[in-house]
Structure formats: C-alpha cells, structure tokens
Specification:
Layout (H helix, E strand, L loop, with lengths): L10 H16 L3 H4 L2 H24 L2 H27 L5 H27 L10
Helix pairs in contact: 1-3, 1-5, 3-4, 4-5
C-alpha cells in the first residue's frame, strides 16, 4: 500500500474539496446569496468535511483521525440535508440537486470505508512510528 504523506493525497479529501467548490458555486446564485444565513450554513458544512479530514490526518494518530472523520461524515450528511432545503426553496434545479446529492453519498461512503480500514489496520498513525 502506498504511504500517504499529506492529507492532500487522500481521495476523500480531494472529493470533499470538489464538493465544496460546487457548494460555493451554487451559493453564489442570486437567490441563495440573498439568504445570507442559509448560504453561510451551506458553505460551513461543506468546508467542514474537508477541514475535518485534514485536521484529523494532521493529528498523526488513527484514534483521533477516526474521530475527525466521523465529524466529517456528519458534516456530509448535514450538507446533503441542506441540498434538500436548497431544492425545496427552488435555489437549485433538480439536476443540480441530484448531482450534488450523489457526490455527498459517495463522499460519505468513502469516509465510512476509510474509517473501517483505520479501525482494522495494525498501523496506529505517524506519531507512533519509532
């Protein structure tokens, strides 16, 4: 298995970054931009996914990393819920909604799979290397 040297190498972080970019794009729409609180909530939850992956990785231990991945997974669910709100308020089209919803499902599955991997591996994290 390839050693991951920085969080930017993690596929789950890359996927989360792309989703965050998408959220910033749709929250730039005039109808969303006028709803300041909702716009900021959407941006915060999508950013929280990638930020918690990065923070957990930088902690250097699997136990803490798993905790931060769990938070990231929760933020992914929060973002998916907010997409429903954006759809219901007619801020985004059904096609945009479906595309973005699918991204959140894929990110959530990938994070869950990575959590399971970390729970089963003998490697405890970079801070435990001799």
């Amino acid at each position: 298995m390839t050693t991951i040297k920085c969080f930017e190498d993690l596929k789950i972080w890359q996927m989360s970054r792309e989703f965050c970019k998408d959220v910033y794009r749709i929250t730039g729409y005039e109808s969303v931009a006028k709803d300041y609180r909702f716009r900021e909530q959407m941006r915060a939850s999508s950013g929280s996914i990638m930020d918690n992956i990065a923070e957990g990785f930088e902690r250097g231990g699997n136990k803490e990393f798993i905790q931060f991945l769990s938070i990231a997974k929760g933020s992914c669910g929060e973002s998916r819920s907010q997409l429903y709100r954006a759809l219901d308020a007619q801020h985004i089209s059904n096609d945009e909604f479906e595309m973005l919803k699918e991204k959140t499902i894929q990110i959530s599955k990938a994070i869950g799979g990575f959590i399971n991997y970390l729970k089963q591996t003998e490697i405890k994290g970079s801070k435990y290397k001799s």
